[in-house]
Design a protein that fits this description.
The structure is a homohexamer.
Chain A lengths: L2 H11 L6 H18 L4 H4 L6 H15 L1 H4 L9 H27 L7 H36 L6 H7 L1 H17 L3 H15 L2 E2 L4 E2 L4 E2 L6 E2 L4 E2 L4 E2 L4 E3 L20 E2 L4 E2 L4 E3 L3 E2 L4 E2 L4 E2 L7 E5 L4 E5 L5
Parallel strand pairs in A: 1-4, 2-5, 3-6, 4-7, 5-8, 6-9, 7-10, 8-11, 9-12, 10-13, 12-14
GO biological process, one term (chains A, B, C, D, E, F): amino acid biosynthetic process
GO molecular function, one term (chains A, B, C, D, E, F): serine O-acetyltransferase activity
EC number (chains A, B, C, D, E, F): 2.3.1.30
């Protein structure tokens, strides 16, 4: 055999060596550096956090329980609708309870509670959440109707429920918002991000949204934590309801927590690409044109459009 | 044991109670409210609709059958390419037939047909769809070539097929468009939304698109139901080909169905973020600049750019 | 039985016929047309390419190995962190080796190498990649800190790591960038597209990005292949760092390869929807306002905002 | 490169060829030979048969519905027991309906029926089966109690239900027997074989078995189609209740259908390895010793043991 | 449409009705009857029991940790053997801890303990079990060697480990026996039954078995709870080491718990189908012939064979 | 909080410690002991062996390819039978090639070959195996017919193919036997054990079996490596065709390799539980009764039954 062939044969039968011990040690050191920078002992790091994959399954189950004949299993029949709803809810709520325990324990690292207190709160949160589900369904029905009425391409309410990413995002938001209100903001955020990843629509679970809400197409929509949206509001893709830039404290750190996103009153329509920033108010019945950049309040009934985006149109026939 | 410990022990061994009977009843009432508002009897709601997860598998199988060595199984060899294509198609078409039956039955709730008629139509739709696949593949080859030619970062046509979300979206669109034309618009829409969720590119299955079509990056692109796109057209991310706002009938309801999206002629390029609205025509060989907001037709060979977006540049050195 | 019933019975028991032989032959002909146009023999097409689903698993495993207690398995305990990291890395690196072999073989179709050379290079690439992981983790820690400091809505660094799509995209980018540098650009691109599909953030693996990088919300962000980004840079959703249009050679073909995307220096903030095109430089400490369209360099410390987007506000009370 | 290395390189990069076309053709010819020998046209062979994997899931679901807290999901709570049972039954019965349709269609190849008749019968079979389930559960409770009482190693009735293969086999038998009685013997047989494969206990679904039946250990037990077993019978491993050999008709063919297996009356115990053949009767309260070979009836109260299996015991100390 | 066709159409579109409410109620009543017969309140039934599917995964993981290069993942390399073993053990032990908690809680329904006591015991059981694993591996190595030496068909020790059901059964037994000794007999029994189902070999976890133990073929072997087996013992298929029948107490109930299975001393061979019953002793170095039925002790060095099973050989040429 | 509660709280929040480092080290030492006893260096142990789970999938795929309409996918239609067969075979043969490579490499540790030789042999083995499949199918058709003709309970040939474990075992045997003959005995053995585990029928892949072979019920059947079985032979459950005991060489080791199992000529029937040992011949057309223990040859046409197993029948009425 030639040298080449010998080397080749050796290579093909031998196992490569990754110098794993050194890589593993390097990663451990990097973690230790981080943990000491974060002032976290060994003990701290061991606490578990809520799991995205578990919440993925919980969210899917809740969608099925809310709309059993549309988002439930393909072979569901009306005769057993309640059986399905009850069984699915039970499994989802038990699983949610486990996630809530994890978040409460995690939060308790700074405000210690007894295990009993944590357990009582966890059960109470899940029980309250469960009791809110019928109201959430009724609210979502107004959203579905709004989507059907708001899009000329929609043929039936069922198509809306099956196909529209905006509806999917709103279902997740309405669930996430209740979780946020009940005191598990991290779980709420993960539920929101599940929809964000699926639809490109980023609604912070803290946002307050009225009935009959519709987002068409939706990719790129961003709605911030302290935004307040009224009833019968319609948004198109790439609309931002954001915070103004440069909100810093005396030390130059970004300020956390205060109301900093827009208030959008009832019956407002905001077209694609509009960017609305800061704690301003869009008055009732206003419409905001596409690509508008708005940082001050407008009174009820306003129609905001770009006054004179002069465009240069050159026709040199080059493309013909 | 202390009181605390007793409560704790009790909590840990007992099962929480979710008051499920009440929640299930509440959800049933909410459904009943909705169904009576929709004038749907018990019977109606029981009909099944096409399933997104089934169509997900069908779409993936069709992608594999169209591009076996690139989107088919990793271990496929050319010797058995036809076997793979034939077997995969057969399974996908049988599964599609089941979905088509569901949509036809659903549609028949308003225009009743005999089971025989429905079955004959369902089989005919799937058979026609199958016969169109070779033409779809040839069309897609023009798209792949256009992508390769249109992006300086593209190294090979294979990279384009494996990595480019724009290509993935166009494959799904070309399949969905045939389904739309053959009379199963709900299935078509679900296929489109599968790609929308994966790529952030939202092409309504009704849109008509010529050969050698390329969308680069793609996130945020929206193409409406009645849009008509010529040959060799190139779009960038966040381009909207939408309907104008406020198309209402005498009663204030949005009008459904009529042509309301742009016609884009051959050899047009539309840059990132451009918004083109209404039944206008972008003439052959035109280019539309980034972020342009366009609501009126432009003749062939036009180059539209923002004339004078004056920008304020302040240099206070604050960031240094 | 009536005729109708007879037909129905026949339909229900018979199997539909898809004329599969003809469809399969049509697809084969289409493939042959394509392959001869691409000057690919039978032999060529048979070569395998890297697999997205394999790289999906590899990327997820690497995320777990980098952040074991946050992105690793839910039940991981600190006692066995190193065991998990070592085992996960080993499986991921072996799997990556198989993918690297495929890309090198594919690339070798134009620059033939001996199997021995290919194998030596493949092993070397994976070994180098492994050795870089601790440094990647340290870099990512600066990104996580930047995200926490840069968003008023972020409660903890853990929330940032679990929920922020921008962080997910950056983790994938930092891995993909090393693979790109080590000579497997197709694998690198697939890893980037995994994150693009999940987050709507499209970072080409070739882009060079400094420490403490943060993208907020992120949907619609596009960062091109030759972009260079300094330290402590912050981007918002829908920011484009792209190439200028019309870069063609003498024959009208798009030019491939040369530096064509922006250089963004340290401490720059770029707000939502800004589009920055061409090989220009954004000087240190600058801020670029939302929706800005920028195609020329700005010096350090610049603040670019839209000077006078005059807006027409009509208040006719129609919406009230 | 040496010749050896060249060949090696070639081998490693080329794909082996399996001469698939010839193998596929060979298999088709073998199928055609078989089908023409069976006088089956193309049409016949296309009919589907019940699916083992579908019945596997159905059987598992029915076990869960019968014993929800023991064989149902791990996290089931009593509060939602009925929800689980109802939902699980509904899905299992719908799935069973599909399987029953297949068997009825298959059976109808020799005794044609209209689709309507087949459908009516299929629905009737499943409905009857469902209505029998509470009685099946009550019967199984007697079996569980018998197992607990009959085995000194059994600690609790729960252990018996969770661990004893004999109990698993009897659950499957009692379900299969009802299906056999209702007219779907092929489905019944598949359900029996699922348990046979799991436990090594082979009970033909046609066998009639009274209450409080217990099989201990069980591997190798065979109970024939026409066997009749009374109440409170106990069997051990490797017991055969079989047909006598050589039951042929005038032409030397084995006779099918007639009663040919034993009748075992109430309160009989049959020990490991006993073989009981033919349409004989084991009288009430008898016990049959291990390894006994019995081909004639015994009256009530008999105790059958091997009279004098003389054994040669040689002690040559060889093993010490 | 004819009547027939009308009925058919109705059948095909309508959903069958299973009268589920009645079936569910019937099953609930059956459960209630059982529970009140077992004197179990609602509360009792709600307690969970160890899960077979969880233990299935645990057992498979432990097999991998014991024999990483043979029963671990296909792509494992020696470089990362310890990483794999550590990570796999950690996950398996955590999962086992959850199962142990369930069994201890279940057992505590009759002998109540505080949650703290239960938790301490559960952790102690799992920790002890973990510490015994190296010794279990050493013992199993003697079994593998015995299998290789004892079967003329065995080519290598690796074949024995990969293929022999007897070896699989012994691995499970040695794990189950430790669990049995440590106080979780239900978990132990489920682990044993996993192997029983897979191999047809039924070894009660209570049985005590010395080193270098080999079962060839194995189907039908039964080894009882109180059996004691010495070193270097070899069994063939269908051997029973059972209890004598009729061990009843004064009230006619079967006695539970006392030693009732054979003691088999070192270096004994027992051939296929032999049945050995009761608390007898098979002396060191003995061999027991096939199909022997033995209910009394034999001294060391005995060779037991069937003395004179006279057989009738009729040669009527009928079969020729 | 009380002490008890304090401990409890601590327990519930802390993670248990398994002293993993020590357990992992203990297991490593046990492996090292074994490896040095086996004279295996680090290098040796790293070689991979064929994988049972991979062979499981290969065997299932081959069953489908042999009997597409019965063991293939539920929705297969005759129109695409060949597509399915070709695609399934291709994937199964590719996967088999990988397994064959592993066994050849493993075998080559004692008789080193060049990588080229190994690859050539591996491809040749798989190609030969593929070419034999049509003949295997024809042989299996005789087995299916024999099963149908041999069992009074069999209704159709389809039932036999779907339900009979004896048929499943023979399919696996006929595949395994070809693999054994082609020089991959370890793979062959694993395929046999897959069927053994499923059916309780243990046929060594080395056994030679003629056409029209039927095993009824089957649990406990053992057929040894060098057994030779003629045409039209029928076996019942628990029949052993084994080796005689005590075949040792001069050093007391068991002899490996030589013919040591029975020759069973054409048209023989062997009833349940019969044990036939050693290299004896059962003459053409003989029948061997149940439970017979036979260690010497019988001439053609023999009928062997137990002459006078005297049984003691005591009727004391105790059971009544």
């Amino acid at each position: 055999m030639s040298d080449e062939a010998t080397v080749s044969a050796h290579l093909l039968s031998a196992q490569p060596n990754w110098d794993l011990d050194r890589v593993v040690a390097g990663l451990r050191e990097a973690r230790d550096t981080w943990r000491s920078a974060q002032r976290r002992g060994r003990d701290f790091g061991g606490r578990e956090l809520p799991s995205r994959s578990a919440l993925n399954e919980i969210a899917a189950a809740l969608c099925g329980a809310l709309f059993p004949m549309r988002l439930g299993p393909a072979d569901l029949r009306q005769e057993s609708e309640d059986f399905y709803v009850g069984h699915t809810l039970d499994a989802a709520l038990n699983s949610l309870l486990a996630q809530v325990r994890l978040e409460l324990k995690y939060a308790a690292r700074e405000a210690p509670s007894s295990p009993t207190e944590l357990e009582l709160r966890a059960v109470e949160i899940v029980r309250s959440f469960a009791s809110l589900l019928p109201a959430v369904r009724r609210l979502l029905d107004t959203d579905v109707t709004a989507a059907f009425n708001g899009d000329p391409a929609a043929r039936t309410v069922d198509e809306v429920l099956l196909c529209y990413p905006g509806v999917l995002a709103v279902i997740h938001h309405r669930l996430a918002h209740q979780l946020y209100r009940l005191g598990v903001p991290l779980i709420a955020r993960i539920v929101s991000e599940i929809a964000h990843s699926e639809t490109g629509i980023d609604i912070h679970p803290g946002a307050t949204i009225g009935e009959s809400f519709f987002i068409d197409h939706g990719t790129g929509v961003v709605i911030g934590e302290t935004a307040v949206i009224g009833n019968r509001v319609r948004l198109y893709q790439a609309v931002t309801l954001g915070a103004k830039r440069f909100e810093q404290d005396a030390d130059g750190n970004l300020l956390k927590g205060a109301p900093r996103h827009p208030v959008v009153e009832d019956d407002v329509v905001i077209y694609a690409g509009a960017t609305i920033l800061g704690r301003i108010t869009i008055g009732k019945g206003s419409s905001i044109g596409g690509n508008i950049w708005l940082t001050r309040s407008v009174p009820p009934g306003s129609h905001v459009t770009q006054a004179n985006t002069r465009q240069e149109v050159i026709n040199d026939g080059a493309g013909i």
